[in-house]
Amino acid sequence: DGFIVKGSRSSQITRRAEESHQQEYKCMPFRAVGSLVHQRRNALIAVGKVMLSGLALESFVSKAGAIGPFGDRGANDPFGELPSSGFASKSGMKYFDYEVGPGSPPKYGQVIIVKYIASAKATGKEKLQIFDSSFERGGGDYIMKHGNGRCVLGLDEGIHTMRVGGKRRILVPPNLGYTVPGLGPFPPEAADRRILNKILAKMDDSGYVAFDVMLIDAYDDDADAGYYDDTDLPPGVLDQVYGNIERFKQAVNVVGKS
Asked: 11-257 has which CATH code?
């Protein structure tokens, strides 16, 4: 689902997409969580909270606490210096633009190609530690379907306002991170998965996952049925999205008070 590319794209891109899909779910068996992974329409509803919250960036944020040594693994930094300030959305996602791209923002339902370095820290006092890098795997491209519910929600939100050709650091809070099995991108190497799992096991509210992302391309999927674009949905479906968002907020408040 989400890796069928026909017509304007070559078979090489299609094959790379299929290999990326197989590699991701080989390293972590995909388990159904409700109907999230079975129906595109339900996937849209599930990520509706992120889609709407991303429309309202509410504040500037300092880069203090958003930077730090990546740990002792080392990496060639393709992104450059982190800007001094960025934005925070109402969902809790934060981002800092290294470079704003010249292209257009991606649309939900499109196939997107990114390069990324993923790091994380369990608490605000710790240093970021790299657990995955697409640059270390062949050409470095990671191909996914934008908005289908199979990507880390905070990353999907952060990419949505990028422009093709741009570079961005996206800080994902725990509640928008690896919350259920099967979310990607997920490191294919066992040693890297252990690093991530160890950090996630200790992560508190001050910890986060950081994705340094290059948005290489975004293009229409000829096989897409059109369930991802909220402007094309009938009013009843949008009402269901808004209702689910309100129920989600109420559930979070109940958990927070317990």
From this structure: 3.10.50.40
Q: How many CB atoms neighbour CB 139 within 10 A?
A: 11
Whether the CB-CB separation of 4 and 190 falls below 8 Å is answered with no
Model pLDDT for residues 151-197, shown as the tens digit of each residue: 999 999 999 999 999 999 999 999 999 999 889 999 999 999 999 99
Query: Is 190 in a helix, a strand, or coil?
Result: helix
- In eight-state DSSP terms, residue 46 is H
Sign of CA dihedral 14, 172, 98, 191: negative
Domain limits, the chain = 11-257
Contacts of 52 (CB under 8 A, 6+ apart): 241, 242, 245
Whether the CB-CB separation of 90 and 110 falls below 8 Å is answered with: no
CB atoms closer than 10 angstroms to residue 220:
14
